[in-house]
Design goal:
The chain is an all-alpha fold. It has eleven helices and no strands. Helix 8 packs antiparallel against helix 11 and helix 10 (231-242) runs antiparallel to helix 11 (245-276).
């Protein structure tokens, strides 16, 4: 068995140091702080406090992230399907040039854009009033949980679509043409022939999007800014207002558990798939 050389270890040392300093040390510190009581001993008091104060926000966070992930999957499949199967060149060209734009916009800028777009007197309602679709009195603000979901979906759809469209482009066109020649509609070809072949890529994109949305602070703080809110806002509030690192770290551990559960589902799916191969 080949032994790692000193030069090889030297090459990866900076990367290992970065992981240790920027990830493992903060993670360990958070875990220790979350399970530490007021007297310094082991305790679950921080978790009791987090559950008592923020159980509604935990459910709200799960609701927002799960619904956003499902909608991201739906829109990504639709856009990637059009890019792969559409026979309308101008539609494919326009869609290909437009769908990537949100990728280059930071979450905080996206949140500010949505504040001006989804407000009661924002661009969306003013456009609907100008077009005669609604009356001015019918205008309502979407700066609540709906605004958070719209912002998350708008930001994450291009990321998942980019991965999915690339995977669909690598599929053997003969299988698609065979389905079309047998009379299958484009929707049926997408669902029954294309999607099963790119399901793994779709799952990877959705898991990464789920974890990303779970960790965003700016969007729930700027778009909604009211109760209930997401765990990231609660963590920032406990630290900035009370210096309460223990409860904030307990909420962080709960976030780790949620993200870890999704990662476990993904890994279990991979293991089962490889066992069946």
């Amino acid at each position: 068995m080949a032994r790692p050389s000193f030069f090889g270890l030297l090459l990866i040392a900076p990367a290992l140091a970065m992981i240790g300093v920027l990830f493992l040390y903060p993670l360990g510190f958070s875990l220790v702080s979350a399970f530490a009581g007021p007297d310094g001993g082991a305790s679950l008091a921080s978790f009791h406090k987090a559950y008592e104060l923020y159980s509604t926000d935990i459910l709200f966070t799960l609701f927002i992230v799960i619904v956003s992930t499902l909608l991201t999957a739906l829109f990504s499949i639709a856009i990637a399907g059009i890019l792969t199967l559409s026979e309308t060149p101008w539609l494919v060209s326009v869609l290909r040039n437009l769908y990537r734009w949100p990728l280059f916009i930071p979450f905080i800028v996206a949140a500010q854009c949505m504040r001006t777009f989804l407000a009661k007197n924002g661009l969306m309602n003013n456009s609907f009033v100008a077009l005669g679709i609604i009356e001015p009195i019918q205008a309502t603000s979407l700066l609540d949980w709906r605004g958070i979901i719209i912002t998350f979906v708008w930001k994450q759809v291009p990321f998942v679509t980019l991965m999915l469209a690339g995977a669909m482009a690598s599929i053997d066109r003969a299988t698609i043409e065979a389905g079309r020649n047998l009379g299958a509609s484009r929707l049926r070809v997408l669902i029954e022939l294309v999607l099963p072949q790119v399901a793994q890529t779709l799952l990877v994109g959705l898991v990464l999007s789920f974890v990303t949305m779970l960790s965003v602070l700016s969007v729930p703080m700027m778009v909604a800014g009211s109760q209930p809110t997401m765990l990231t806002v609660d963590m920032a509030f406990r630290i900035n207002s009370y210096g309460d690192y223990s409860t904030a770290n307990a909420l962080g551990v709960i976030s780790y558990i949620i993200a870890g559960t999704v990662a476990w589902i993904y890994l279990r799916h991979n293991v089962r798939r490889e066992a069946q191969a």
